[in-house]
Design goal:
Elements: E1 2-4, E2 9-11, E3 16-22, H1 37-50, E4 54-58, H2 71-88, E5 93-96, H3 100-108, E6 113-116, H4 125-133, E7 136-140, H5 158-175, E8 183-186, H6 195-203, H7 205-211, E9 217-219, H8 225-231, H9 240-252, E10 257-260, H10 263-275
Parallel strand pairs: 3-4, 3-10, 4-5, 5-6, 6-7, 7-8, 8-9, 9-10
Antiparallel strand pairs: 1-2
Helix pairs in contact: 1-2, 2-3, 3-4, 6-8, 9-10
Length: 280
């Protein structure tokens, strides 16, 4: 399987690791750590050294209780980082945004993938921006408006909900000119789902993967609150063990891309799991 971006073809015979660079003061796990430009570039460099295949740069926190920032503020946070990273490293840059204006600015500055946590629900013109540049596009399943994504009443059938939501997102993207070979999907772990539903989605991910065989599946379970609730660990930074277990299970069940905070540790866990025969 190949995933095409505006600059390259990404081979998916082995799992791709997407390292997270949050240029925000309030992200749930690492808010403030990469808020300043120099700190963000240093984090990007460290993630690349640890083996990140892609960097995901975001300027708006989506943690429970977070508030939206303007497109201008989001652009001010991420564009200097994208430009600095692109000028120093040859690594695919993904912009984590659900605003078309931000996506356009990021792609103009060197990003080649757009990661939309709303699956085009908030701003369908994100697809226009991706199509215009031939960018890769990650469509994530979520429910509700921005301020309500984490407080939605759980649905009875999470698999039907995710499948229908992803199918609708794909239809919007394709209708606006995004080709199937540019689209990746994300089941949206932690967004409006119970602990049990998050666990079930990872454990039975193959069911979703089979429905969308033409699109690679991305899973972002790193440090999520379901791990904290399951393991009684309120500190997001202390959820590495649960994150690695979720990563191995996700890959075993068909994930081709992992979005993680801890790149080195994830690579080590995957290599060991493969050596043990747990992964192909």
């Amino acid at each position: 399987m190949i995933w095409r971006t505006s600059k390259r073809e990404l081979e998916l015979s082995s799992v791709l690791i997407k390292g997270i660079v949050n240029t925000t003061p309030d992200s749930f796990s690492d808010g403030g750590e990469a808020f300043a430009l120099d700190d963000a570039v240093r984090r990007a460099e460290r993630l690349i050294e640890e083996g990140a295949d892609i960097l995901d740069i975001g300027g708006e926190s989506t943690r429970p209780g977070s508030e939206r920032v303007s497109a201008d503020e989001e652009i001010d946070r991420i564009i200097p980082v994208i430009r600095a990273v692109v000028s120093r490293f040859d690594v695919p840059i993904s912009v984590d945004t659900s605003k078309a204006a931000v996506a356009e600015a990021a792609l103009e500055s060197g990003a080649e993938i757009v990661n939309d946590i709303s699956g085009l629900r908030f701003d369908p013109q994100v697809a226009d921006a991706a199509a215009a540049k031939g960018a890769g596009l990650v469509l994530m399943h979520s429910r509700g408006e921005f301020s309500e994504m984490h407080s939605q009443t759980p649905v009875a059938d999470i698999f039907a909900e995710v499948e229908n939501g992803l199918r609708e997102s794909i239809e919007i993207a394709v209708s606006r000119g995004v080709s199937h070979d540019k689209i990746a999907l994300d089941v949206g772990i932690g967004f409006g789902k119970t602990v049990e539903q998050n666990l079930s989605l990872i454990a039975n991910l193959a069911r979703i993967v089979k429905k969308f065989e033409e699109c690679p599946m991305l899973v972002g379970a790193s440090r999520k609150s379901f791990i904290g609730k399951l393991c009684n660990e309120p500190d997001a930074g202390e959820r590495l063990g649960g994150s690695l277990a979720a990563a191995i299970a996700a890959v075993r069940n068909g994930a081709k891309i992992l979005r993680v905070h801890d790149v080195r540790e994830t690579r080590q866990a995957l290599k060991t799991a493969k050596a043990l025969g747990l992964l192909d």
